[in-house]
Specification:
By secondary structure, the protein is mostly beta strands. Helix content is 5%, strand content 56%. Strands 4, 5, 6, 7 and 8 form a five-stranded antiparallel β-sheet that branches. It has a four-stranded antiparallel β-sheet with strand order 9-10-11-12, covered by helices on one side. A four-stranded antiparallel β-sheet has the order 13-14-15-16, with no helix packed on it.
Length: 653
């Protein structure tokens, strides 16, 4: 038996440790009373309630007896004692449970499991009690070999303790069995349950029983209550793993944020997308921002534009630079809204009527129209079977009427188009001098003819509805192929069919119809004739029809302040007075100069014209020189001829 006890003690000792002298113990039998620590001469032992020393005072420190229970239900009171600098345990029978040979020792919930500390090592010692037939008291019998560990934590309620050995960690039970293998670099409790581990620098999650929940393959892992999932990191990316260990999202995102209880906003390549809680891709990752829209879908921005999209990236409200909140528009009673990116407005519907709202949410068109269509020129509106046209800023450009013409075509052909609801016709202008009447389909038609009337002996014009177009102040009105010839105070003027003036007031008697057949009449703002154009060249025809400034100039206009024409020919500007004679540019023509004749040239020959442009000296001379006595005319053969200021032949002085 002595050899047996010595073998037990050898098992319990740590090799190489220098032990303090261990007091010899003598078993006691008087155990009817409670034993408490008692001091005697600087040493400690145990006395009963009467103060009688039952266990001799041989220890340097002594703790109270505490009852511990083994896994098989056996209970035993034991006390922690110290001899020198070493700790151990004794029983009430004054028998060592653990001899005092350890730097530190703790007995946990079972006297069958002891944690001892000696030097840099912690030792797990498995023991079990047996009754010695000889001593009649429990003795210690080794149940398994001691385990030298670098760290050993306390046993949890689950009966497991964290243990480390050779730089690795695992979990053991009180029997010393590795429930979680000692293979992990780091092993720690996971706040959400189970254990968080690091293996070869990678993190994972284990279940409470040691089974792998999340493979240790991530650079980081943490439970995020807001996400209701594990946030995992790998190679700079983030992903999600569910509570039961299933992967929700691969670790490829720069950030992951919850969006309500149904989805996650994820960022990838500086763009945002949307994942369902089950990991399904609801929106691809190419948006600048994503926000929920309670009216349905999601607000998104991309490259500065806004849109509302549904799952699967289906566009509900197209992209545009709008700032209004579509959700508020729907809440205001609009049944549907649609963004028009060209007009930068919302098209809104209420019942069977349609209107529009600006990008900032302000009202554009009231919801009173049957249809709204955006055109290159602006808006085509339909209400009650009629149409009206507005420009892009919602200003009227053509009033309401039953017209059907394609305004895009009209606007390409005409400068200005307006609708006359009184006659159900368009008035269209090519320029300020040419206008046309168009029927509702856009075909050119003759305008309704005005009606001439008299009042107090004077003549005027009314339209077919009686509206006065020309006041009755004229001496006479004659209808012409081009319009109307109107006389007053000895002067005449010409008006087109729309009673727009086309030839100003003057003393002319020329048949304008014949003139219009040959020339494009440009101007008659003076009393000396008509500026005409033919084949791109300009000239002047006198009121009597004579061409007194030839149609040879690239440009020609009347300067009323100086009473002369300004003409351009081959890039050179010249002044031509009212008599058709060229004068110095910038000079003021002298109305009192000799007679009313001008020297003109054509094809290298010279002649004379009067102030109406009538040729009074044929343009056949090689030169004409104006002198103090009149004119000197030179022919090609050198023959000279002289005329006075009245063009009478005189002898050459």
């Amino acid at each position: 038996m002595k050899r047996f006890l010595l073998s037990i003690i050898a098992v319990l000792c740590i090799a190489g440790e220098a032990f303090a002298q261990i007091p010899e113990l003598k078993p006691v039998k008087d155990l009817e009373d409670e034993l408490v620590p008692a001091e005697k001469k600087g040493k400690w032992g145990y006395a009963n309630s009467s103060g009688k020393m039952i266990i001799k005072a041989v220890f340097d420190e002594a703790g109270p007896f505490e009852v511990v229970t083994s896994a098989d239900g056996t209970s035993m009171p034991v006390a922690r004692i110290k001899a020198g600098n070493s700790w151990g345990y004794i029983t009430r029978e004054n028998v060592y449970l653990i001899e005092p040979t350890y730097d530190n020792i703790s007995l946990f919930d079972s006297f069958a499991t002891v944690i001892a500390e000696s030097g840099p090592f912690k030792t797990l010692i498995g023991v079990r009690s047996a009754i010695s037939p000889r001593l009649g008291v429990p003795v210690l019998v080794s149940n398994f070999l001691q385990m030298n560990l670098s760290e050993l934590g306390e046993f949890s309620e689950d009966g497991l303790a964290l243990a480390s050995k050779s730089g690795k960690s695992g979990m053991i039970n009180p029997k010393g069995e590795w429930v979680i293998p000692c293979r992990y670099d780091v092993l720690d409790l996971n706040p959400h349950g189970g254990y968080q581990v690091v293996l070869d620098g990678k993190m994972g999650i284990l279940k409470a029983d040691g089974a792998i929940l999340v493979e240790p393959q991530y650079d980081g892992i943490s439970w995020e209550p807001a996400l209701n999932a594990y946030l995992v990191q790998k190679d700079g990316g983030m992903g999600l793993v569910s509570e039961d260990g299933n992967r929700i999202a691969p670790p490829v995102y720069l950030s992951i944020e919850p969006l309500g209880m149904e989805a996650f906003i994820v960022r990838k390549n500086e763009r945002y997308g949307l994942l369902g809680r089950d990991g399904r891709i609801l929106l691809q990752s190419y948006y600048d921002s994503i926000a929920p829209c309670s009216a349905g879908g999601y607000y998104v921005t991309k490259d500065g534009e806004h849109a509302v999209v549904a799952q699967g990236d289906e566009v509900i409200i197209p992209y545009g630079y709008w700032t209004a909140n579509p959700e508020e528009l729907l809440a205001a009673g609009y049944e549907s809204i649609e963004w028009n990116p060209e007009a930068e407005m919302f098209i809104v519907h209420r019942g069977d009527k349609v209107g529009s709202i600006w990008a900032d949410g302000s009202m554009g068109l009231e919801t009173e129209y049957d249809a709204i269509e955006y055109q290159p020129y602006g808006w085509l509106l339909t209400i009650g079977g009629e149409h009206e046209a507005l420009d892009k800023e919602l200003n009227y450009i053509i009033g309401r009427g039953p017209w059907t013409a394609d305004l895009n075509v009209l606007f390409e052909k005409y400068v200005h188009v307006s609708w006359d609801s009184a006659v159900n016709l368009f008035t269209a202008f090519i320029d300020e001098n040419n206008s046309f009447c168009l029927d509702p389909a856009g075909n050119e038609v003759d305008p309704p003819a005005p009606v001439m009337f008299t009042e107090n002996g004077k003549y005027g014009m009314k339209d077919v509805w009686g509206e006065v177009l020309l006041e009755p102040v004229y001496d006479g009105i004659a209808e012409q192929p081009y319009g109307y010839l109107i006389a007053k105070d000895g002067l005449v003027a010409a008006y087109d069919k729309y009673l727009d003036i086309i030839q100003g007031w003057g003393p002319w008697s020329l048949d304008l119809a014949a003139l219009f057949d040959e020339y494009d009449v440009r101007d008659s703002s003076h009393m000396f004739g008509f500026i005409v154009r033919k084949d791109g060249k300009y000239g002047v025809i006198s009121p009597g029809g004579n061409n007194y400034i030839p149609v040879i100039y690239d440009s020609l206009e009347w300067d009323n302040s100086r009473k002369c024409f300004i003409a351009g020919l081959d890039g050179v500007m010249v002044d031509i007075d009212a008599w058709g004679e060229t004068v110095l540019p910038g000079s003021v023509p002298d109305p009192a100069r000799a007679r009313e004749f001008s020297i003109v040239s054509k094809d290298g020959k010279y002649g004379l014209i009067n102030h109406f442009g009538d040729v009074v000296v044929p343009i056949i001379y090689d030169s004409i020189e104006k002198t103090d006595f009149g004119y000197v005319l030179v022919m090609g053969d050198g023959t000279r001829q002289a005329k006075d200021p009245y063009l009478m032949d005189i002898a050459i002085p």
